[in-house]
Amino acid sequence: MTLSGAHYPVVVVGGGQAGLAASYCLRQRGIDHLVLEANRLGHEWRTHRWDSFCLVTPNWQCRLPGFPYRGPDPDGFMVRDEIVRYLEEYAASFGPPLIEGVRVSRLRRAATGVFELSTSHGRLTADQVVVATGPYHTPSVPRVAERLPADMVQLHSGDYRSPGQLPDGAVLVVGTGQSGCQIAEDLHLAGRPVHLAVGSAPRVARFYRGRDCVAWLDEMGHYRKGIDEFADADAVRMRVNHYVTGRDGGRDIDLRAFARDGMRLYGRLAVVAGAIMSFADDLRANLDGADAVAEGIKDAIDAHIAAHAIDAPREARYTPVWEPSADHPRSLDLRAAGITSVVWSTGFVRDHRWIEVPVFDGRGYPMHWRGATSCPGLYFLGLPWQRSWGSGRFEAVGRDAEFLAGHIDASRRLADVCGTLTGAPPTLSVALPVG
Ligand SMILES: Cc1cc2nc3c(=O)[nH]c(=O)nc-3n(C[C@H](O)[C@H](O)[C@H](O)COP(=O)(O)OP(=O)(O)OC[C@H]3O[C@@H](n4cnc5c(N)ncnc54)[C@H](O)[C@@H]3O)c2cc1C
Predict the structure, then answer these.
(1) pLDDT mean by block of 10 residues, the chain; 435 residues
(2) Which has fewest Cβ within 10 Å: 37, 264, 267, 307?
């Protein structure tokens, strides 16, 4: 199969939930388009989630356009294979013009204004392009990893599958974002001795006063708050997610309880010298900080309940079940502790280098407003906090897709009127109905 010489009004790059949502919304508007996916539909969920993985967000938040979750457990949390099935069924519901196994290796904008896409199956052109390649591209592993003993098995959270994948012995998990905490729990539940380097990620309680905290926050309008409403929008976009789990019907992740039950906690990893690791003196502060965030969210829920005179059961507040002692260890001898593997749960970095269009800031983050960039016809979809909390999640990617489809449609109509998209007079460009 070759795509060489083909031209489409719109090309969507990426066949995850964002790319599919974009396709659905374009189809609804009768806009001819093509979706190119480097691997298989839903690739990230299929290949980069561990065996016991389940959603952290409740199923009712899976609101892909035209295909909201209608399963038997709206308050539950789909496991990995159910999420893949949900995406497959979504695609089957409308039949997107999706081609799998085609990687876009280069995106440029020609002098004529048309976009040129170099792909593994030839070069094609498009009037408009939606980049829906997800936010998590390259595993980020700190370079101190190079200093570990050569026989230490190391892997990134994106490649972790199950405890059985790791050699016998204790495991060091570095990082306590959502993945790190859940992987540490997975290993802990399997009876593996776990050492955990704790960072500053916040946490949220799973349930409070009779409901999932996500349900309260939804009712409180938290998820409708736009990024433009934050004075520190840039910082909000880069924030680490709160840790909590949907496992076994959902529960808190309480690192203090893990420590009480035998997991060894440390502060942030600072230095690696062969088999000796040193940690910052911030374990207490990091645990306290995470608890403070969780309790602050409960304060806000209490205020909401009071303000609306809601009949909700009272619930005792959290009391720490474990505290690090004053002389809590700040170093770890991997050999003495019997550690044979390290799981780096240290996040991902974006890689948009294949996009050769000058729409990025100094950090490589695409500058956009609600996904529309300063380059006419180039859009992003599925970025965390693109427009609101749920933009990089199931919750609001559909709303963003609908918005962009409207924008694309308007641009197309404007181009029809003006004869050329990119040559549109500025007065008409600013009059686009984008609100
Ligand atoms: C560990 C983890 C847990 C998460 N848990 C939740 C949760 O509980 N609830 C929730 O709502 N969200 C969750 N998310 C966030 C989000 O829903 C996922 O990251 C989701 O995969 C994002 O979907 P997407 O379509 O934007 O991107 P992706 O799923 O990353 O899809 C992008 C697609 O683009 C393809 N691609 C990339 N580059 C190219 C290219 N150059 N050419 C062609 N194709 C390309 C990839 O193969 C991939 O299939 C989680 C994310 C992670 C990492």
Answers:
(1) 95 98 98 98 96 98 97 97 98 98 98 96 98 94 94 97 98 97 97 97 98 98 94 88 96 97 97 94 98 98 98 97 96 97 95 96 92 96 96 97 97 79 46 40
(2) 307
Q: Are strands 115-119 and 372-373 parallel, antiparallel or unpaired?
A: unpaired
Separation of CA 134 and ligand 1 centre (Å): 5
For residue 426, the model assigns a pLDDT of: 42
Ligand 1 nearest atom to the CA of residue 383, by list position: 26
Measured CA to CA, the distance from residue 193 to residue 176 in angstroms comes to: 17
**Ligand 1 binding site (Cβ under 6 Å of any ligand atom):** 13-19, 36-39, 43-45, 55-57, 103-104, 132-134, 136, 178-179, 354, 382, 392-395
- Residue 306 CA to ligand 1 centre (angstroms): 38
Query: Using CA positions, which residue lies closest to atom 25 of ligand 1?
Result: 16
- Under a CB-based contact definition with an 8 Å cutoff, are residues 182 and 206 in contact? no
> Domain ranges in the chain?
7-137+350-431, 140-344
Q: Hey, what are 70's tokens?
A: 């209608």
| Closest atom of ligand 1 relative to the 182 alpha carbon | 1
Q: Whose CA is nearest to atom 38 of ligand 1?
A: 133
> Do 140-344 and 7-137+350-431 fall under one CATH topology?
yes
Residue with CA nearest ligand 1 atom 10: 393
- Residue the block writes with tokens 């609600």: 370
pLDDT at 45: 97
Could you tell me which of 165, 191, 196, 169 has the C-alpha nearest to residue 180? 196
Ligand 1 centre from 8 Cα, in Å? 24
Yes or no: is domain 140-344 CATH 3.40.50.300? no
In the CATH scheme, what architecture does the domain 7-137+350-431 have? Answer: 3-Layer(bba) Sandwich (3.50)
Residue 96's identity, in one-letter code, is P
Dist CA 122 CA 261 (whole Å): 56
Return the best residue to mutate from 80, 82, 133 for the ligand 1 pocket (most ligand atoms within 8 A of CB).
133
Distance from the alpha carbon of residue 80 to the mean position of ligand 1, in angstroms = 13
Task: Assess contact for 401 and 24: CB atoms under 8 A.
Answer: yes
